[in-house]
Each structure stands twice: as C-alpha cells, then as structure tokens.
Amino acid sequence: MTMAARKALVQVAKEFGTPAYVYDLDVVRARLADLARVFAPHFSVSYALKANPNPTLLASLAGQVALADASSVAEVHRSTEAGFPADRVTFSGPAKRPRELRDAISACIGGLVLESVREAAEANRIAAELHVRQDVILRINPATSPRHFGVSFSGKASQFGVDEEELSTAIERIQSLNNLKLTGFHIYSGTNSLNAQAVSDNFAIFIRIFRRACQLAELRPAKLIFGSGFGIPYLASEAELDIDAIGRLVIPSIAEMRSEPVFADTMFVLEMGRWIVGPAGWLLTSVVAEKLSRAVDFRMCDAGFNNHLAACGMMGTVIRRNWRIENVSNPDAAMHRYTLVGPLCTSIDVLASDIELPEVRVDDTLAIANSGAYGLTASPTRFISHPEPAEIVLIDGAARDATERGSPAEKPVVRDQHRGCR
Ligand SMILES: Cc1ncc(COP(=O)(O)O)c(C=O)c1O
Predict the structure, then answer these.
(1) Domain 279-403, what fold?
(2) Which atom of ligand 1 lies closest to the CA of 92?
C-alpha cells in the first residue's frame, strides 16, 4: 500500500470511527478498465451483488458493467434502485419462493436463472397468472469438476442448476412451458481460482456444454453466462490471477463462436463479484487492548468474525490462514509477531495468529485487505450486539459515508402488479 493510501485509511478511521469498511471506487473503476482491456468486446461483465450490495458501490457499478446478478428479490430491487435497467438484471439462487418469483417477474427482470425444472414449472404458473412470457436462462451443473478452484460446485450432486446428464429432458420440459422463453444458459461451477490455466480449462468445459445445450434447444442464445471463478490473492504467499493469460487462452474460442451464425447475436457474459470489488475494500479495526499470555502477544481489536467472517477463516475455508493485514498507523516500526483477536467472547474469534506486523499499539488502526467482497453482509453482525461497522466510500480520494441503515431485505417491494414491461 502506498503512503498516501495508508494516510487516507488513517484519516477515515479518525473521521468515521472503527470498525469501518472502506471501498475505493477508483480501484473498482481501474479493475473494470483492466477487464475491458482484456475481454472487450468478446465478453460483457455481470456483477454478482452477493459479493457486496452496498447501494453507493452499486450505483457506481451500474454505469460501468452490463448486467447485475441478484440472488434474492431484495437484490433485484437493489439493482434497479441503483440504476441497472430491470432488463439487465438476472436472478439466480436455489430456493426462490413463489413470492420472490412473482416479485421478480413483476419487476420485469431480463433473465430468470432457472435452477431446476420444478422451479421452471412454478415460474411458468406465475408468469401465466401475470399474463407475461418471462425470459429464462437455464443453469447447468456440469458433470466435470474444475481443478484449482477454492470451492467447486460441479461434478457432484448440487442444489444449483440441472445436472448436465438431465439437460435434454430439462430443455424439452422448459421449452414446452408457454409462459417462459428459454434465452440462454448459465454455468457457475467454481470460485476463487488464481490459476489462469484452470479458469481456461473450466471455460472450455462451459463452451462444450453450451454448444450442446444450444443444439438440443435449437437456440440462438441471447446470453451465455460464464461464472468466472476469478480469484484474488488473500494470502501473502499468493500471486494475482493473470487475466491477460486467461484472455490469451480463452478469447480465440469465443471469437470463433461469435463468428458462427448461431452465436452471432449472443452476449457472452463474465459473471463475477469478488475479483471486481474485493481488492477495492479494507476493513479498518482499532486495537482496543493488549495482553501477553504464555509468550503469545495478543492484540484485541474492535472487529472480529461478527464483522468479517471470511477474514476469520469461517467462510468455506478448512484451515484458517492469515489474510493480508497492515498496521496503517505505525507502518515503519520494528516488526513483531502478534495474535489478533476480535471482541467476541469466544476463543474462535481470531483475525490472525502469529502474524508479523510493525509494532502494534493500543489505538492503532489495522487494515484488513481484500475486504471489499463477502465482508459486511456476509458476516453475523448481530452476534453479541457490538456496533455495526460503518461503510465509507472513497471517490477521487475523498471519503463519504455510505453506511446503510436497516436490513437490506426490509425494503418495500411492488407486489402483484406487472408493470407492462413486455
Ligand atoms: C451463481 C453465482 N454467480 C456469481 C458468484 C460470484 O462469485 P465471485 O464473487 O467469487 O466472483 C457466485 C458465488 O458463489 C455464484 O454462486
């Protein structure tokens, strides 16, 4: 981190207090420019709101990415309120309740991502009641599992998508439903890969399946959605994903597809969250107390797993490893080893163990890197009733309070009336 960036974070901590999430929208913009440099015009980008649904961040993304992928009806509404046109919103997720389907269809979303044939039948019934024909995208669960991904969903039983082996029957069933229009396919089979070859190998699997699916459906698809699985280096020992290498490996196949009549009007979509916003975010936490216990130098911080479940290794990781953390208050001091813990009354509330940092004193501000994705809204903030972290955005270097009050799911929803979108 540059000295200027450190100073900016210290200033945010002073002005807004801690714990606080900070999202640098200029970093987001630079990352999107990098994606465009490598993948445009072959791929468009879809932002998965689950990574970070902060409204100010979303409003900035709305002008910069083509699509938004929502995974709840509240996220559908967040997308449109932030400025995404409804027809640029897709809605995925394995347990969509009838109420949610109805609200999403009423909101005129551009693509309902079907996770099963049963869901298709339910959506069809609701679309018929609303006298509309809903565009749908079928999610497929590949029979093959990708290698070198943090988490992989495919090659095994899954709640997501229809199994590749069932593709033919599923397509037939969905195409027989009068109030649904099959417009494309979607695969998301692995997350957080730092290996360009692995991402490319996985995309080759997607392309094979997409080709077969389009043949079976006799479809010129409007959208083919590639769940990117692009990862970010959370650990000091990890290197950045080489997106230029992915471009070199993948774009020739996409260019070839785009030259074929069947894919001439297809929007090829890279769907992702963490790669875009993760490195743009920091969680700032203050050191509240210190203690030496049996030769372990503890620093007690005002944020723990209540504020950042993933950094504490509790979001899908088997072994907790230290994330990149900086002492932004005291960057040039001599290095020491510390165990950093949060404020919760449980011994599992560990931010980092045996981590080397410049001397950490009470009141210093520590910054946890890569916190722009799966941070605040992926954490159990109510546990033990500590204050909620603020959310601060940096735009052109200036800090602005972007804290959202109240539960994201509590927003009012327009119900039961179709707004005549098609
Ligand atoms: C369907 C779907 N799309 C997108 C994402 C976003 O993944 P990431 O934030 O790792 O890019 C996920 C994550 O699990 C997902 O399940």
Answers:
(1) Lyase, Ornithine Decarboxylase; Chain A, domain 1 (2.40.37)
(2) 1
